[in-house]
Amino acid sequence: MNVPQRNDRLRRTYGFDEISLSPNGQTLDPSLCDVKTNLGKYQLTTPIIASAMDSVVSPSSISQLADEGVLGVLNLQGLWTRYEDVESRLEDIQLAGDESFVGLMQKLYAAPVQTDLVAKRIEKIKKNNKLVAVSSVPQEVEGLEPIIAEAGANFLFVQSTVTSIKHTGVFPSLDLNKLCKTSKLTIIAGNCSSYKIALELMETGIAGLLVGIGPGAACTSRGVLGVGVPMATAIMDCAEARDEFERQTGKRICVIGDGGIVISGDICKAIACGADAVMIGSPLAKAKNAPGRGYHWGMATPSPVLPRGTRIKVGSVGTYQQIINGPAAFDNGCHNLIGALKTSMGTMGAKNIVEMQKAEIIIAPTILTEGKVYQQSQRLGMGSVK
Amino acid sequence: MNVPQRNDRLRRTYGFDEISLSPNGQTLDPSLCDVKTNLGKYQLTTPIIASAMDSVVSPSSISQLADEGVLGVLNLQGLWTRYEDVESRLEDIQLAGDESFVGLMQKLYAAPVQTDLVAKRIEKIKKNNKLVAVSSVPQEVEGLEPIIAEAGANFLFVQSTVTSIKHTGVFPSLDLNKLCKTSKLTIIAGNCSSYKIALELMETGIAGLLVGIGPGAACTSRGVLGVGVPMATAIMDCAEARDEFERQTGKRICVIGDGGIVISGDICKAIACGADAVMIGSPLAKAKNAPGRGYHWGMATPSPVLPRGTRIKVGSVGTYQQIINGPAAFDNGCHNLIGALKTSMGTMGAKNIVEMQKAEIIIAPTILTEGKVYQQSQRLGMGSVK
Amino acid sequence: MNVPQRNDRLRRTYGFDEISLSPNGQTLDPSLCDVKTNLGKYQLTTPIIASAMDSVVSPSSISQLADEGVLGVLNLQGLWTRYEDVESRLEDIQLAGDESFVGLMQKLYAAPVQTDLVAKRIEKIKKNNKLVAVSSVPQEVEGLEPIIAEAGANFLFVQSTVTSIKHTGVFPSLDLNKLCKTSKLTIIAGNCSSYKIALELMETGIAGLLVGIGPGAACTSRGVLGVGVPMATAIMDCAEARDEFERQTGKRICVIGDGGIVISGDICKAIACGADAVMIGSPLAKAKNAPGRGYHWGMATPSPVLPRGTRIKVGSVGTYQQIINGPAAFDNGCHNLIGALKTSMGTMGAKNIVEMQKAEIIIAPTILTEGKVYQQSQRLGMGSVK
Amino acid sequence: MNVPQRNDRLRRTYGFDEISLSPNGQTLDPSLCDVKTNLGKYQLTTPIIASAMDSVVSPSSISQLADEGVLGVLNLQGLWTRYEDVESRLEDIQLAGDESFVGLMQKLYAAPVQTDLVAKRIEKIKKNNKLVAVSSVPQEVEGLEPIIAEAGANFLFVQSTVTSIKHTGVFPSLDLNKLCKTSKLTIIAGNCSSYKIALELMETGIAGLLVGIGPGAACTSRGVLGVGVPMATAIMDCAEARDEFERQTGKRICVIGDGGIVISGDICKAIACGADAVMIGSPLAKAKNAPGRGYHWGMATPSPVLPRGTRIKVGSVGTYQQIINGPAAFDNGCHNLIGALKTSMGTMGAKNIVEMQKAEIIIAPTILTEGKVYQQSQRLGMGSVK
User: Fold this and answer.
1) For residue D3, is it within any domain?
2) Would you say residue D13 lies in a domain?
3) What is the ipTM of this complex?
């Protein structure tokens, strides 16, 4: 009798909490570590990009982020292009109860995107910043791209939960190839999580690839859709595609790990897995003057028929400077993200991002290897023990 | 010295929480996804079947479920065939304390099944619905089948915890072969969880196979009997048997994943594992006007000598429409089960159920890959973070 | 450079919570399942033996256990041979605070064993029971054996945490070979957990082998000593040794799974792993009139220099009859242990203990496969969900 | 299409909580087990070394530790070389709130190390003890070594989070080869966690190697930097390097497991993994008169820019004698560490440390194999169940 085998052929994948970096060579002073990275023709001061989420990026916070070397991306389907007055809506979200939150989100995001507000927001950002980055869902890109380019933006993130180049839709879908050829904007697209799709997307001419399906702190795709790929594996696979694409074409695409990054150690791991940059939401939503006012929510939440983000109370842990460049006043990985990355790179002997991508990774599930310590810490009423 | 090896030959099996779907091809608008499925000669609007449990299906709820495309199955060994007045008993169960619950169940289900009530209930359902489905334990089938058929039912679910075609009993056991040949009813049988038994059961002539031993939310078989097979593996194995049977005979049996389905993502996973339909209990017991009145209990609970179900307080999360077809007002997978399935199918590029059965599955244990996020969310007092 | 490999050669072992039984053949009415087992020349009504622990077995409880088919073993280094009046000491233990418990135990068990009490206790038990079983640590066996035999006992359990036949001690150690040859008592020895030691112990002439190191509910060996072998693997390995010994000699030794058995499903699993019988403590300490009065403690606890048992509040869940033979009033595996075993055997198509030892076992870690359900149940405030 | 494989090539590593010792041979009376070990030309009474942390070792506690056979190491970058009056600073730390703790640490440790205090502390210790051990970070060693040697110390621990022999720094880095050749002190260096680095460090001429990156109870490296290697694997790998080095040179280096040791069972496991000694912090910080006054904190905590230790309230569980040599009054592995080690060695049939290093190790994750028991214990409100 034939024994079925599908069960035995399934591939084991890994999340950040299941891996760790293993120092196994020379070391380096953190001050000698270079964290610059490239996104298309631009060089970014740090590999940190702020997520295109209303709780993370507003026109005014973009300057504060830029001061710390972080590129903030404004969501063009967010509140800032639907309302003239956004602050009062952010306050409503802050004050909403858990029961009424999803309904409120569905109502707030039902207002139409106003193209004049799109231009206005971008121009405002341009006035105060050298680089302007915005995001849009694929189905709105064709209409918005001329306005975005005209208003002076540099980067356009074409972002949906899962992106493929062979989408079958009711309406004709976005032609990424054409967009990359004709637009003067630097195009970043995603999200994806596999080698094959990563390679297909890179062939369209994009400058950056967003990697990450389902792992975000404010994302419930895995519960609602059953869909999601643990981040360590997703980044490793897409980084292999980038390397293969570079071998074939000589062109290096920026792989951006997007989602599931909670503390500084996760940034270090993402880059060791092969990311050239990371896109983070919740760590920045914890800033004292973040737009989310102590809350963080997913951009799929407002879906009128199938909301699948959630709202998280993240509180406030310090200024953008403390969070991004320190000095740290907390010991739990929420402060001095760049300092932690440099120290980790020094520990792993990596002079720059590309060298860090070759760090030795081991499988070491936190919950298994630290179980007793964790339990003990809980018993003793400790804060955080890693 | 010979080293023993049984330990090393054990097969690793997987539950829903250990797998995830990995998008790796084209995508599709959810509105283009077709969720219809076949059960014998009938086509079902959706692949969702409501469990034959007293907390989930009553004669009147069957119409409400049918309005949403869900086939409700009435348990013929439940309260509705033992009592003329069932509502007062459901109220007793609702009001029972945790200590007295099992005793009450044992008493309530000790009343004999009345064959006139069997006919009466079926006729009532038939009056309001096109399709009537009922279930019975194997040992009562021979006596009840003529009454069931006469009363106008379409489907007979022959269901016990573990079914085999070679049962040795004190009394002669049900001849499934004969039943399938002689009955005009569409016969569905189970439960089973292995390739071999699935194949043997399919050869009897059944139209549908119930797959799932021990995983249900209200089932304690694994604790009491040590018996149970994680759902992802069980469905994958039985789906392979279905495919093999179809290769041999040209006949396609409907594999129904039954048990352990808690949120919409589980339905998506069950179908990706190979199920043609799912039978769900607790997600529907959460409907505002579900028979269980905010509670859900297993049908093995009333056993006079070895109760092994339990009662769960599931509360009420919305109407049947919200739960099954949305729009969703919650973001945790309890609303819009069909919308979530279609969105998941679109994400995986599956036009229909058969294509969804080929989706790429990965091993990604929730508790390991999301450990820190989960802990963090708990610390921050969040609701649900997936 | 040579890469070290010890890490990669380590063997993965399994506990009860990591395995499950997978029905994969015919089924059987539970009433047709025979649970009798053999221990030396004696046949036991059920495969359940009550642990030689003061919280589980007293001279008077032995009769009550025997009425239910369970063989109770009196610990000859327990309170009953140290004190004339034991009940007041049991009350002291019951009333001790968590802080003072270990000190009290050390004091209570510092009193010397009185050989006249040994004889007296055995004679008392003999008066009311057909079979008398007692236990002793190896170093006391030589002195006590004549008294035990003279007083009319049938079984002598020679039991220590870890037993080998090549012990190097300050004083000459027990010669098991000689004991088995010269004593008219049926000798059971242990504990052990490996194929090699099991085989060596069987060659001494023992009738039964106790298998289990470190897994007991009241045992802290794993934390204190770092020593312990998960039960499923330990039983599987020793059962292979038993089969090998039977092939070589034609003699079948009774393998007794001892420790880590908490609910009825664990008994089913232990036997499926290859055990001929199980020795259980905590499930019986929960009886209304168990000697422990709602508490359970390990027999290594009183060690004057290195206590490594603990005291557990187990409460009271019912009578010996409810716990052992039902009918069950709870659905969580604490009632009707034998009924559950028979139902499990019927489910697995096993007519007797030897057939049950061939049941299909799968790896299915409870915490991984049932994670979400468990979390959900916690959120909903449920009691126990399996 | 090439399938990426980095994910599949990752190495699985293990922490103490994932392994267990499996008795599989002869046994031995604990009183016959010899726990002495060698560190360079010195023989240590026990394999326990107290961590160079201000919460664990002070000049006066060194004598108390020595009375119990434990070598205490004074941290020369700790409070004792920065302040004349240390006790008032320890009190400040004790009284600090969770919010202000990191800031206080940063301030306290900003004071400069005074070389006259270095000499004074060592001389004071020398007066009362035969052996004096101190530690320093690599960058301060060159300046301090003459003072340390002159003051009469025996051991110098050159210790940083991650040590390599090929460090690239802003300033010239320590030449370990030269230090080992020219200093009359016995040099111990670390920390490291891999076979390759261990071998390179041994070739410099050190007498002892500190093994352990990231696992300590008061260390948050894994969360902040993403860096850390589970202890069981780290020790196994470095012990293989030691054996290889001994084969090549005939010289045996002392491998010291440093970090992640919480209870006595962990010491037994560390040695079974191949350690010749262990360095422990939190178990000794629990002593009634430990310098930390009921608290324990990491020495990386005071970092002005990236603190990555934490403060843990460990409370007080007994005297140094109870903790190290017993007798134990608790059953959870916090008392009688040496008694537990000897008993474990007896159980494993190991006459000395070198034999214990060959004990059979199995993979048996605590959280998986004991899940149900643990949950049950929690439900029942038990203290600790192992």
Assistant:
1) no
2) no
3) 0.92
